[in-house]
């Protein structure tokens, strides 16, 4: 199927889903890896809808698998069956220790003092995102964060510093894609056997499949909206994509993250995610405790 002349089937896919995935510029169509008509149509359509090459390939493969499974190519329904994407069957052969089905309000915080403050404010899930290259400072901050959540009921995840997290007895670890890829098989086995819970960041279909391969305790999806907190390799995903991701990952606890403020809570939670991660909505608030209470109330209302 030439890039300049998409088939009627590809046009139908685009027509049915353009509103859901609005706001993305078309991407170049990657080199096809199959000659199946359903695959080729979906690859072209996904690229037209703005999915990057790796994600367009995942979508096209899933559409092909669904077509073979059902015997019909339905352009009206976006693929969302885990088996069509090749996700692990439940119960998973590879899996980390489970956590809650819904992590609730998830506060991402810069140091142990903030961790303790938000844990005492009743935030159910907190993450220490402490940036340092000093091993001594990292160990000190991780230990302080573990102590800070004692007797609060808050679940503490440590961003990146997984060895220090295990040594300190933290509840969980959160890793990005690059951190996950950097783990050796022995490192991954150490993490899994420690009993620590694992959360993994994802920014699209290909990264979700990569995360599923290790069976994390939850999967984070974003950035949903523009954020200035870190440089993102991918464009903001938007609520339409988030809803598709949430349907596909429905057997995982899910965390939406990235530029989410109180005003976006209803539309984000309507996608089916069980947790919303926030940073600026708390650390930049005039009264962080009051902001936390308002956000938790917004989650209950939604």
From TrEMBL:
CDD domains: TMP_TenI. Coiled coil: none annotated. Pfam families: TMP-TENI. GO terms for biological process: thiamine biosynthetic process. InterPro entries: Aldolase_TIM, ThiamineP_synth_sf, ThiamineP_synth_TenI. Keywords: Magnesium, Metal-binding, Thiamine biosynthesis, Transferase. GO terms for molecular function: metal ion binding; thiamine-phosphate diphosphorylase activity. Its EC number is 2.5.1.3. Pathway: Cofactor biosynthesis; thiamine diphosphate biosynthesis. One of its GO terms (cellular component) is cytoplasm. Residues 112-282 form the Thiamine phosphate synthase/TenI domain. It is an enzyme of class 2 (transferase). This is Thiamine-phosphate pyrophosphorylase. The lineage of its organism: Bacteria, Pseudomonadati, Pseudomonadota, Betaproteobacteria, Burkholderiales.
